[in-house]
């Protein structure tokens, strides 16, 4: 089975950086390890793209890295996992563009690993 590629919007990269900076205020070492743990959770999706729970209301999937939720969509045709949001579980629901306009609305720039 062919592995998937990951795609991050610029917004998602900022969300991950914001998590790091927030934790680093109190504990820089833990901020680094926590960021690495989130990145590891995301990298696991390459081999286990459907391991996250389905979120039917937003037509996406998500995995938990408590207290954060990583929202993503799987593009089966192109074998790409699009990481859409990384949000604290206590925050209000997010805006998630419809599937057909995901790449246009989230960001003009994408990073594919």
Q: What does this protein structure show overall?
A:
This protein is α+β, with helices and mostly antiparallel strands and 113 residues long. The protein has one domain (5-100): YaeB-like fold. The protein is 33% helix and 30% strand. It is built from three helices and six strands, in the order E-H-H-E-E-E-E-H-E. It has helices spanning 10-24, 28-44, 102-106; strands spanning 5-9, 53-55, 60-65, 68-75, 80-88, 110-112. The chain has a six-stranded mixed beta sheet with strand order 2-3-4-5-1-6.
Topology:
Elements: E1 5-9, H1 10-24, H2 28-44, E2 53-55, E3 60-65, E4 68-75, E5 80-88, H3 102-106, E6 110-112
Parallel strand pairs: 1-5
Antiparallel strand pairs: 1-6, 2-3, 3-4, 4-5
Helix pairs in contact: 1-2
Quickly list its features.
33% helix, 113 residues, YaeB-like fold, six-stranded mixed β-sheet, disordered C terminus
Task: Characterize the biggest β-sheet.
Answer: 6 strands, mixed
By CATH reckoning, the class would read: Alpha Beta
- Counted up, domains total 1
The whole-number mean of residue pLDDT values reads: 81
Number of strands: 6
Count of DSSP helices?
Answer: 3
- Poorly predicted residue ranges: 99-113
Structural class: alpha+beta
Strand content: 25-35%
H/E element string? Answer: EHHEEEEHE
Q: What is the percent of helical residues?
A: 25-40%
Outline of this structure?
By secondary structure, this protein is of the alpha+beta class. It contains three helices and six strands; from the N terminus they run βααββββαβ.
């Amino acid at each position: 089975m062919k592995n998937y590629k990951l795609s991050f919007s610029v917004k998602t990269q900022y969300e991950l950086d914001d998590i790091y900076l927030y934790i680093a205020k109190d504990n820089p070492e833990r901020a680094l390890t926590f960021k690495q743990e989130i990145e590891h959770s995301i990298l696991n999706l390459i081999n286990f793209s459907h391991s996250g729970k389905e979120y039917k209301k937003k037509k996406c999937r998500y995995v938990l890295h408590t207290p954060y939720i990583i929202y993503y969509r799987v593009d089966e045709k192109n074998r790409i996992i699009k990481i859409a949001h990384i949000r604290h579980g206590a925050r209000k629901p997010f805006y998630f563009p419809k599937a057909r306009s995901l790449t246009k609305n989230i960001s003009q720039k994408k990073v594919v690993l």
